[in-house]
Specification:
By secondary structure, the chain is an alpha+beta fold. The chain is built from 11 helices and 12 strands. Helix 7 crosses helix 10.
């Protein structure tokens, strides 16, 4: 009996010693991630690397205060907040979106106004980061960092590219995919006027083959009609011809702006069968 007690005491001492050696393990792990240029980690990564239990890992992360922030209360994915980003509450979304969606195992790309800005067209300051996904997701708010999500079926077919000179890997819609998305989601990004002023600077960057690939991938005649009208009005006749050739010969009449007041006498562009009910090109 005495031998059994001594053995248990030795095991307890060993366990306590192991726990003492792991004190500060989360802080050391976070520092190592930062040293490697990473700003993200999952709870599973932390536990696997340090040997900490879930309870111990949570406790140590709490003691790190604002140096670590959780992306969502329902998800075990964390951001490392360097001192220069403490005021805003988290690192820029572009630094961690790729890691986040890899962790989720879902496709994504930087889209709409955020993609246009990445390609050099930013007529207005952005307050949020806009991301295209394959399934509905709630917006994320991490301090002053806000990310909103838009859903697209067959997202994998949309042409994307790696964002050049970015801090971390990041997928972004190509210029052609971006202008198509801007037209398709115009009513959700501030209206047709904002979509038009944002996409116009991107048109000279788009090649005809790139545009054909997007039209085939998206396969939405109504959006293509609206885009064709805007492209022609913007003086890009070669791109307009590409859209005209792709569209079916018989085209139904549609309004340019889906949410504008529908003026019965709005001018009709016969080539595109688009009725400019927005007055965007009457100015």
């Amino acid at each position: 009996m005495k031998r059994f007690t001594i053995q248990n005491e030795n095991e307890m001492d060993a366990l306590q010693g192991a726990e003492k050696r792991r004190t500060g393990a989360a802080a050391a792990f976070v520092e190592a991630q930062q040293a490697a240029g990473r700003v993200t980690f999952s709870m599973a990564d932390l536990m696997r690397t340090t040997g900490l239990s879930m309870i111990a890992a949570r406790g140590q992360l709490r003691r790190l205060g604002t140096a670590v922030v959780r992306v969502s209360p329902s998800q075990q994915f964390f951001l490392i907040v360097s001192p220069e980003n403490r005021a805003r509450g988290g690192p820029p979304a572009e630094w961690w979106l790729d890691d986040y969606f890899r962790w989720l195992g879902q496709p994504y790309y930087l889209a709409l106004l955020s993609a246009a800005s990445a390609h050099g067209s930013n007529p207005q300051a952005l307050q949020v980061t806009q991301v295209m996904t394959g399934s509905p997701r709630r917006p994320l708010e991490i301090g002053q960092v806000r990310v909103v999500f838009f859903v697209k079926r067959r997202i994998e077919e949309t042409p994307t590219q790696a964002l050049a000179n970015s801090y971390a890997p990041l997928r972004v819609g190509t210029p052609a995919a971006t202008v198509f998305d801007l037209m398709r989601y115009a009513d959700r990004i501030g209206g047709i006027g904002r979509a038009v002023e944002t996409l116009r600077p991107l048109l000279p960057r788009i090649g005809q083959n790139e545009l054909r690939a997007v039209l085939k991938a998206e396969d939405e005649a109504a959006t293509a009609q609206r885009l064709g009208y805007v492209v022609e009005k913007s003086g890009q006749s070669r791109l307009a011809a590409v859209i005209d050739d792709w569209l079916p010969v018989r085209r139904r009449e549609i309004p340019l702006a889906t949410t504008a007041n529908r003026r019965s006498i709005a001018p009709l562009a016969n080539r595109w069968r688009v009725r400019d009910n927005s007055g965007e090109f009457e100015r």
